[in-house]
Write a structure and sequence with these properties.
Number of helices of chain A: 11
CATH class of the largest domain in chain A: Mainly Alpha
Shape of chain A: elongated
Order of helices and strands of chain A: HHHHEEHHHHHHH
CATH superfamily of the largest domain in chain A: GntR ligand-binding domain-like
Oligomer: homodimer
Largest sheet of chain A: 2 strands, antiparallel
Helix content of chain A: 55-70%
Radius of gyration of chain A: 27 Å
Amino acid sequence: MAHDALRRLKVVRPKRIYEQIAEQIETLVRDGTFVPGARLPAERELAEMLGISRPSLREALIALETAGLIETRIGDGTYVRADLGGGRVFPLSGRDMGPGPLEQFEARRAVECAAAELTAARADAEDRAALTASLARMRTLIAAGTNPADEHRIFHVRLGDASRNGILSGAIRELWRLRQEPMWDLLRRKVENPESWHAGIHFRSRLLDALEARDPTAARREMETHFDRAGRTYFDPKE
Amino acid sequence: MAHDALRRLKVVRPKRIYEQIAEQIETLVRDGTFVPGARLPAERELAEMLGISRPSLREALIALETAGLIETRIGDGTYVRADLGGGRVFPLSGRDMGPGPLEQFEARRAVECAAAELTAARADAEDRAALTASLARMRTLIAAGTNPADEHRIFHVRLGDASRNGILSGAIRELWRLRQEPMWDLLRRKVENPESWHAGIHFRSRLLDALEARDPTAARREMETHFDRAGRTYFDPKE
DNA sequence: TCCTGTCAATTGGACAGACCAATTTTCGCG
DNA sequence: CGCGAAAATTGGTCTGTCCAATTGACAGGA
């Protein structure tokens, strides 16, 4: 069938002139035709060279200025910004990046700590049984030397569901899904090991105790401690 | 000598119209006046509303588009991009029934307390000035006997933005948008009055003090106290 | 000679009006 | 009731014009 081919179709977005021009100029800057600090031709001149009107050229220049590539000085001219340090990439294209790992982490800390507090007060026997079972599976996986990451997700999502708050549980589910994306695999692989898996078991065991005791404060405290420790491990520049 | 004063001189950069307009529209988007997915007025209309020419407005729109805030569809209109920040992480819509007020409240408590903590550590002078200005507007509104609910939203959304966490700030924006819906008006009307408005001023003033002092712990504590008090007012069955 | 104020040229900033093209909406026909 | 053509709406682009800021040449005075 042709279904496979059809699936590859992309939505055609009519390229507006200003985008084409901006890309052209970006290329010229990248390949060194326009050196940082250099002055571009005057707007009227450049527009004629490119065969477009001055407003369209201006729109392209505005886009490039917003992207941080160029700089215009009234009454003087348009210049390629000189402070384009080598590593700086221009966000003109491919700017659809999701939230970074730190943002995800901070958000998860916020919602999971709150969810733990609520869950301690609201979880029923079934919830507790499911969490206990998940913890047991984790132990089995670790004993077999397997990474329990997937079971971690199940545990925390179930914990969120038990909070009986659809917003928080939905957010937790979504944040863990983001966390599973391959992009952050490398970051995790650096700090995760069988030892950290065992520490995770201890933490979740204590958390479960707090739930059994129906102690919201203790549950939140356990979760906060967990995130504080994880945060130091992942994001502290000490090592 | 006047050397000390001279040292404070800043290079004046004439703000071009498109920059001013872009900033205006950006604040309208960020404080929730223009909801993600919403359609902006037509270019001709918007230009007239702002008292500028269409080319200038178009330059502002192109800047916002380059910045990834809006999206234009030829022959249709200009739309606020729907995939901003935590709009996807906190799935509030698409369910048969929206989340109830208690769910909203618990979620807001979670994200706003976390955001306050981060903001205390990350807010810059501009953020603090904006929050101070918002608080001043609140005082004016209350003095005139007007309900400051809209300014409340602006204050808290700005506070969230200053946390520099797109997920949290997006969630706060969404949750406050939800709160503004007419469905919960009655609930609020029962417990809100000029006296509670004044209490809100005091709370936000103390919160601002914590931000000025760059004290994350104090900022979080103020926010938690606020939510605890509001929670008792709204949801306690005592009365 | 050197400084200084002035004036003209250059350049970007902004506006008005018009026309084209894509999209959506409306409405009449089958 | 469904469907296709016409009309209205909306963004895309162009032409032309005028204004404001900057620059640089130039003449005049210390």
